[in-house]
Every structure is written in structure tokens, then in C-alpha cells.
Design a protein that fits this description.
Elements lengths: L2 H9 L6 E2 L2 E2 L3 H9 L4 H9 L6 E2 L2 E2 L3 H11 L6 H16 L8 H11 L1 H10 L2 H14 L4 H9 L1
Antiparallel strand pairs: 1-2, 3-4
Helix pairs in contact: 1-2, 1-4, 2-3, 4-5, 4-6, 5-6, 5-8, 6-8, 7-8
Length: 156
């Protein structure tokens, strides 16, 4: 597992954040499970502990904010496709969501994702298929003014 992402998970007091059912005490373990998954089944099992908790049907919860930073840290190292697809999906669902209880949460999550814009750009430029497409989807949400520039670099 990426040591920077692991350290970020350890440094977050997840109990101070919320998910759909209350305190986010299991999110750190779920993220660790995703980032250390060795196959699609393990990644899917970890995903099941994040989907409908950190985000649910377009809603995001406060645990989404530190999750963005952990996912970006994970992308600083190459990831197998079963893992990178889930990492980028998680980022997309978070930055696309909104909070019913905290109107500023969406912008805070997007701002964190924008801090990793050039990392997401590198991912889009150096990968193909699902990984590239998912990175571009995240970029389209957090930096729509940059997506055409990035797409032109991909074809140029």
C-alpha cells in the first residue's frame, strides 16, 4: 500500500467525520482494504463498505473530504486497474455529490481534488481505457476550464 496514503488514513480521526449511518469509524479500514486489495474481489468488498456510506445517491457525507486526499495520495503510485478504477470512481462520486446538511462540503471536496489536478492529468495522459476516462470525468467536474487543454494534449 502507498505509504503516503496509509499515513493519511492513520492521521485522520475518522470518528469525527460522518457517513450515512453516523460516525465514520470504519472508513479508514475500508480505504485501507481498497488500497491494499490484490484482486477485483477484494477491491469490490472494500467498495461495498464505502458506497452508500461516504456517498449515497448523489449525497456526500463529511468523511468524503479526507477521503479525497487519501485517494489522490494513492494515485501518486501506479495502481492495478481493479484498484485505480475504484479510486477514480470514488473521487468522481464524491466531487459530483452534494451535501444536504453542509452546503460548503461539495466545494471543499472539489477544492481538495483540484489540488491534485496535475496528478489527475498525468493519470489521464499515461493511462488508457477506464483509468483515463475516469480521471477525465473527475477533471471535468473540478476543473472544467482545463479539460479541453488536457484532451488536446492527449491527441497532440
Amino acid at each position: 500500500m502507498n505509504p503516503v496514503a496509509e499515513r493519511l488514513i492513520e492521521e485522520v480521526d475518522w470518528s469525527t467525520y460522518e457517513v450515512t449511518i453516523g460516525p465514520a469509524v470504519r472508513v479508514g479500514a475500508a480505504l485501507r482494504g481498497l488500497l491494499s486489495s490484490s484482486n477485483m474481489q477484494e477491491a469490490s468488498a472494500a467498495w461495498d463498505e464505502l458506497e452508500e456510506f461516504v456517498f449515497s445517491q448523489g449525497n456526500i457525507y463529511s468523511a468524503a473530504e479526507p477521503t479525497v486526499s487519501v485517494m489522490l495520495a494513492a494515485l501518486t503510485e501506479d495502481q492495478p486497474p481493479w484498484r485505480s478504477g475504484r479510486i477514480l470512481d470514488l473521487l468522481f462520486f464524491i466531487v459530483s455529490g452534494a451535501s444536504l446538511t453542509d452546503p460548503s462540503l461539495q466545494e471543499r471536496c472539489r477544492s481538495r481534488a483540484r489540488e491534485g489536478l496535475w496528478l489527475l492529468t498525468r493519470w489521464a495522459l499515461t493511462h488508457d481505457g477506464w483509468g483515463r476516462d475516469n480521471a477525465l470525468e473527475v477533471i471535468e467536474v473540478v476543473a472544467p476550464d482545463r479539460v479541453d487543454l488536457i484532451r488536446s494534449a492527449m491527441t497532440g
